[in-house]
Fold this protein.
Amino acid sequence: MSKRAVCLFVAIIFSISIYAQENKSLQDSFLEAEFFFLNEDYSDALTYYLQLYEKLPDNSNLAYFIGVCYLNIPGKKNLSVDYLEAATKNMSAKHKEGTINQIAAPYDALYDLAKAYRINYKFDKAKEAFLKYSGTLLSDDRENLDFINHEIKVCDMAKELIAKPIAYSEENAGELFNDEKANFNPLISADGKSFAYMVSLKFYDAVMFSRVVDGKWTGPINITPELQSDGDIYISCLSADGKLLFLSKDDNSNSDIFTSSYNGNSWTQAVKLNKNINTKYWESHGFISEAGDQIIFASDRTGGFGGLDLYVSHKINGDWGPAVNLGPEINTQFNEDRPFLINNGETLFFSSQGHENIGGYDLFISDLQSNGLWSKPKNLGYPINTPDDNIFFMPTGDGKSGYYSVFKESGSFGKEDIYKITLK
């Protein structure tokens, strides 16, 4: 072999070695991003994806992940559109996860682009993207096809509802319950003396609790350790006297409803409700009536109308009896969740992907009629409901006011603040 050939061979081997090292570095960064992404830590995942995309600007798969991250970060959802548009220019049904060498985006990019358009009030473009996405589904995938057809109709309903905004006032709950972090799922007891909510800490979501002492709210304390939770537990209800807390525990494969009681000094370890409430399926958000004799909750157990349905159970001999589906007036073929029952069990607030919807989950109200059936659910209206998900509304009094959490670009303490709203 000539000297020149030897030099060329060495150069080739050296180049291959350098490329392999660079590819390994990129792959390691991609796996770091995936770790955060799968744990729904979208801000940290985004940092890695953006660094990778700067080096690999033709990688549509990276553009897809960046778009999804932005779509899940309050205040930055408008930034998702450009990246998801870029992702949809190169898609493939053969999508291999876990590798930086995957260049094409999955067809899910079309669905997420449609969501991004809708959330950003671009309803006509959203309809087009949803229609294109439906063309990627199998003809016998009836469940997903029906959902996408509903999403297309929602784009038209949204424009009608937004054209008729409702009047309401809102007041920030203040720095006692809000800080620079996300504060959400606000609950207040019927006697108005206990308040609980969730706050996103660095490694978990914590349960915070405050009560009225000498006419003033005490500083909220983190009661997560008392519940003996690993940060996988979420609050859904306070009893009328504030001494019983209902929670749901989510282990990513199942969700069950738990309770904890206040013994005068601390909260007890959360315990699971009986088998009439909890099954092998997904149960979430139990809410107890003021009288304490009814619990209403969401479940995707078999025999429902589709997805999560709302069920009610009454107390029998001190424990919860068989659960009864609330019926087709309330439940649709899509998801219903986060029910709240007030006015002696005659007024229901809940969230739904169905009914007359502005987009995602909307908040609805329904009244129990004299014939025992629920009235047609009424959308709480825009701008309480938006084209994004609106899921958790804690009604107070007779339902003319309540608490919810929302992100605002200005005038807020942090990522998501708790507000009290009054309907007019």
